[in-house]
Design a protein that fits this description.
Blueprint (H helix, E strand, L loop, with lengths): L2 H21 L4 H26 L10 H7 L3 H28 L4 H14 L1 H19 L1
Helix pairs in contact: 1-2, 1-4, 2-4, 4-5, 4-6, 5-6
C-alpha cells in the first residue's frame, strides 16, 4: 500500500467526518457515520499497518527513545498518525452525541470539536469543562 496515498485517504476520511460533526450534527446517520463508521475504517487501516510492520521493528513503547526508534519506520509512523485520526474522530462523535443528550447547544460544542480535531485531549478537556458547567447549572 502506497504510504502517501494511504496518508491522504485517511486524512480525507477524517476531514469528511469532522465536517459532518460540525455541519450536520442533527442528522443521526451523519453523526454515526462520522463518529463510529469512519473511525472503524481508520481502525482497520491501522490494524493492517501494525500487522504488516510491527514484527521485527526496532524500538517499542518502553521509553521515549524506544518510541522514537519505532516511528523511524515510516509505515509505523503512518500507523501512529492514523491512530490519532481514529481516536480523535471517535471522541468528536461522542462529544456531539453526548452534547445532544445533555442539551448543550451545538454552537458551544463547535470550538471543542475544532480543538479535539487539532489538539485532541485539549478539546476533550474543554468539552468536559463545558459539560460539567452545564450539568452543574441544571442541578441548581
Amino acid at each position: 500500500m502506497d504510504l502517501e496515498r494511504t496518508f491522504s485517504l485517511a486524512s480525507v476520511i477524517a476531514d469528511v467526518g469532522w465536517l459532518f460533526l460540525i455541519v450536520v450534527p442533527k442528522r443521526p446517520l451523519a453523526v454515526h457515520v462520522a463518529g463510529v463508521f469512519f473511525p472503524l475504517i481508520l481502525a482497520a487501516i491501522y490494524l493492517y499497518f501494525i500487522a504488516m510492520n510491527i514484527r521485527g521493528a526496532e524500538g517499542g513503547f518502553g521509553s521515549l527513545a524506544d518510541v522514537a526508534t519505532l516511528f523511524q519506520k515510516r509505515e509505523l509512523l503512518l500507523a501512529g498518525w492514523i491512530h490519532y485520526l481514529c481516536f480523535d474522530l471517535f471522541i468528536g462523535g461522542w462529544e456531539v452525541r453526548d452534547s445532544q443528550q445533555h442539551g448543550i447547544p451545538h454552537l458551544v460544542v463547535i470550538p471543542c470539536l475544532i480543538m479535539t480535531f487539532m489538539l485532541g485531549p485539549i478539546g476533550l478537556l474543554f468539552y468536559f469543562a463545558i459539560r460539567s458547567a452545564k450539568l452543574k447549572s441544571a442541578n441548581v
